Amino acid sequence: MLVGKLINLSHTKPDISYAIRVVSRFMHLPQVPHMDVVMRILKYLMGTSSRGVFFRKNGHFNLMAYIDADWAGDRDIRKFTLGYFTLVGGNLVTKRSKNQKVVALLSLEEEFRGIAKGITEILWLMKLLFELKFPTKEACKLFL
């Protein structure tokens, strides 16, 4: 139950999302070391209570996406992790981090998958902003 609440909190504090994702894998059979990690996350949150995601009016709707892929970095499942987040007008709109279902044979393969996911997310946001009558005036930026 505590991990579920931390999952909800990670939407406004993305710096803990990776740790929460790792801990949530063991929710079905938690052990003492897993609870120690949860307590460590709570101590971290007590020290960083004034930090988080804040939204500001910046006067523009420029789109930016940041993408990162980690090739076989997870030693437990040996699959690559893909993460990205998008900003509209300098404010965080979407974020995602997920272990992929396939095993990438090359690190270049995972980078191309990341680029494809990022472009898909940007195109979806562009279409959404256009339908809401807030078209972007500048080119979208994609950072790897």
What ranges have pLDDT less than 50 throughout 5 or more consecutive residues?
A: none
Strand content of the residues, in percent? 15-25%
Main sheet characteristics: 4 strands, mixed
How many distinct helices?
Answer: 4
For the termini, the CA-CA separation is: 35 Å
Instruction: Give me the strand/helix succession.
Output: HHHEEEHE
Task: Order the strands across the largest sheet as they lie in space.
Answer: 3-2-1-4
Structural class computed from helices and strand pairing: alpha+beta
Q: So what's the overall shape? A: flat
Number of domains in the coordinates? 2
Can you walk through the features of this model?
By secondary structure, the chain is of the alpha+beta class. Helices cover 40% and strands 19% of the residues. It is built from 4 helices and 4 strands; from the N terminus they run H-H-H-E-E-E-H-E. The chain has a 4-stranded mixed beta sheet, covered by helices on one side. Helix 1 (2-9) packs antiparallel against helix 2. The longest helix is centred in the last third of the chain and has 25 residues, at 107-131. It is flat, with a radius of gyration of 17 Å. The model has no long low-confidence stretch (mean pLDDT 82).
